[in-house]
Amino acid sequence: MSVTYRPLDISNADELKHVQRLIDADLSEPYSVYVYRYFLNQWPELCYFAFSEGEKDPVGCVVCKYDDHRGARLRGYIGMLAVAQNFRRRGIAKQLVAVAIEKMQEIGCDEVMLETEVENTTALSLYEGFGFIRLKRMFRYYLNQGDAFKLILPLTEKSCTRTTFLLQPETAFVE
Amino acid sequence: MAGLDAQLARLKLDQRLVDVTDDFRNLARGMEPESIIKAPSFDLFEGTHSLEIDNIKLDSSLLILSEQELSFDCGKTYGAAEEDKLEFVTAVADRLCRSIVLWLNEFQTLPTTLLSCRYMEHILSQYTEDPVSDLSTCHLETGHELFDQVLTSCVFGACYFVKFVQTLFKAGVVFEEEDLNCNAMGLNMLAMVKLQTVKSHLQNSKHFLQAKYPAASQLLLIVELFTNLIELHEYLPSNPELNAAPNTQALIELVNCAQKLKQIEMPPRSILQGAFSPGIQKRLSNQFPPREIVEPSGNEYDGFITIAKDLQLVLSVDQAKTVSEIAQLSRFFNRIEQRHVVARALYLLYLMRDDQTVLDQYTFNDFSFLHLQEFSLCDTALSNELECESGNPTVREKFDDFLVEISSVLFEWYQTTAQNPCRYRQGYNRQLLLWDSLQAQIETYELELEGQGIRDELDADNSFMPLTTWVFYMKLRAMSDFVLKGFKLDVYKPWEFFSMFWYSYYLAQHLENNLARVSRFISDRITAITNLNKKLKKLKAGEKKDKLRDLYRSRMATQMPLLVRNRDFISYLTLDCTVIKTLSLAQVFQFAMLKSFGLIDNKHPGSGKFSSPEFTHKLRFKTFESIGVPELPSYELFQQSLEDFVITEPMFGSKLMRSFDFTENELEKVKESLQSIFETLKDNESQARATAGTQLVQEESLAYYQGLYRSTEALISNGRELRAKLGNKASRTLIEKYKVSVSRPQGGCPYFPLLSLSEQ
């Protein structure tokens, strides 16, 4: 069974529904349509679907964004990742993350960031396998009261310098 | 669209409204799927915090209530006979108490706990509508005093306690949705009401129960519990009476009430008949997704005991005799075990008051000065210059400016100590830049002073610089805490253990050197004073001898006691530092032994494709990258250090055994150091005050060092286990048999998890 990956087509109304279906089935955090719109309308090129041979609808998706982080570096962000229950343990999530990071690297991101539940060892293992490290722990971060780790993957040297020291003097002064 | 149709069907159109449904549908039909209608100024990110109508997970108006919940009426009595009414009121009041604990101790929200009570909603809605300070607009009108008087009192008590917590929360020490949920759904928590008003109401209820309901012992206890609970409001720094020692009687009484109430079985939920429901989330303004109400489990009264005990601990800061004792209380009170959110929030407010004083005893500047004085400033050229009436006013002026700077960083330090464990570590991350910048500035100032002859010599080549020395000490402690707390929070993976423990060792080495400088300087000053007496004995009677005698007596009276105390305190800090240094070194050795067999490496196993081991290392040490002193060792130096520790041929076996022996010997010495610390902490029993300044946190500080002792023993036995499993011959095949995993010894210090070997 082969799996193909492609970015979202924002002009196709059904694609938002596919993302909602995949994510809502899986994540503990309830997301409103605005959250999806926030990501998909602004960074459609950073949302990827996984299609399994013989399946009409996508079986997995990753939703990302990138933006300027405090005027100092370009930060990519993995917001959501889900694979339908029946298609797990086939490396689909890993491949979705890989294509997303490749895209963020191509865009020029200095680092990629995400949060994940401390108890979610599967997700931690997946991301740590890409070179992410746990930068900090956040107390009762999720609605289910669980702590989260903030994970970062450094793509360039800029990721390794404190923001304050990346800013021009006048910018630092304003901040 | 189905959702929209349902919404439209619910709308009642009258003459004031125009039906635009068709226009809306026609326009919507022509929209592209990616179109979003929004004001240009509206950032889509703001929308991510919105709720969504008709989404079952986000729209609390879709909550379904039971028939009983829907028909519940606060204007009616519940219970047929008199004893049934008493049972009902007692059950509601009991649930209110339990809801307080669920809200605070279990980190739940107000709407799912206290505000799920219909009586709370009813009375607070009345008060919000007409907020009068005598509470005359808030009442139940059932015509039965158990409800209209006693239950109302309990509701007032609960509301007043929420108001107290809200006030604490506004101080900004604890964080919304992280430490505490204070969303009161737009209800006014008796903002204008004075404590005395609620106290009187509760007092009346108490008298009423005593007179008319001799069997209502449980309800009476609950009324007393609320009476003690609202008394906590007195501890707020805005209370004008607070300059007296805090009256902790209410806390003692609170514990007594809770002890008795916890013996009584929790009433069955069925008695409550819909008095607690999620309905408020439907009826009032709700910015959060719908949530089920939280059911008590039965042990909630223990929660009040926790609140009271933790508050007693933080209020004991009032008994501190020195700033070192205040600093030590801050260092230990929230270190091993997270203290109750109310105690953590109150601590900083209580310590550092709105009137710019510390405990109403010191100004912020005096407080900062005493930190310096109780460490390195006593009997220095600078302190003499500051004390001298004919001293240079510019020196004083600039020194005072630095005290302001120091106060602001110290404030951050004290605030950090009261935060949750994650924020605690992050607080140090922020502070490091502040300490570093302060150190650079203060060092320049001290060099200027030296130019003016205000200088203390440590030896022929080095000056002491008492201010820089203290700032450096504080900075190193913050750096070390930041590193070690990462282990507690499970932030580091096993491959990072070498770098983090080696760096911890490096920091401890700097700290140890710094403390040795202070110790040497203080000893010299003590010797100088003692020598005055020797000189005195040699002098013949006369004016010169009289003058020297006066000087000797004055220095013995003013400087000597503080110098001796500082010397002892530094000795304790040195032991503390040595323990951390050696434990870190032992970890480094054990990592290197495992690496010598190829069982572990210090490079991120997954950093190849998109990143590099160097980037991940540098990202991990980003916090320290800009620190001037001590300079962050280069990536290459970290690598080289590991290579230096790793055992290679020739004589692999004997080198390995020497490493094991050395580590075990060093760890045995740590146990001795810890024994000395235990003695120091227990000095409380024999001396007026403990030399470690831990008088007020003896139990907590002992627990911390006992944890370190257990970790030391665990490292010793882990070393022996590694010795047995690894053997003494170089081998690369053990990786097929063993894997490295992280273990945390029971009762051990969370800063020192172990790298153990287990079968594959």
TrEMBL record, chain A:
Residues 3-156 form the N-acetyltransferase domain. Pfam families: Acetyltransf_1 (PF00583). It comes from the Eukaryota. The keyword RNA-binding does not apply. It comes from Lachancea nothofagi CBS 11611. Belongs to the acetyltransferase family. MAK3 subfamily. SUPFAM superfamilies: Acyl-CoA N-acyltransferases (Nat). Keywords: Acyltransferase, Transferase. This is LANO_0E06590g1_1. One of its GO terms (molecular function) is protein-N-terminal amino-acid acetyltransferase activity. Transmembrane segments: none annotated. GO terms for cellular component: NatC complex.
TrEMBL record, chain B:
InterPro entries: NAA35-like_N, Naa35_N, TPR_NAA35. Keywords: Cytoplasm. Residues 34-198 form the NAA35-like N-terminal domain. It is found in: Cytoplasm. Residues 314-685 form the NAA35-like TPR repeats domain. It comes from the Eukaryota. Pfam families: Mak10, TPR_NAA35. Its main location: cytoplasm. The keyword Disulfide bond does not apply. The keyword Cytoplasm applies. One of its GO terms (cellular component) is NatC complex. Belongs to the MAK10 family. This is LANO_0D03466g1_1. It comes from Lachancea nothofagi CBS 11611.
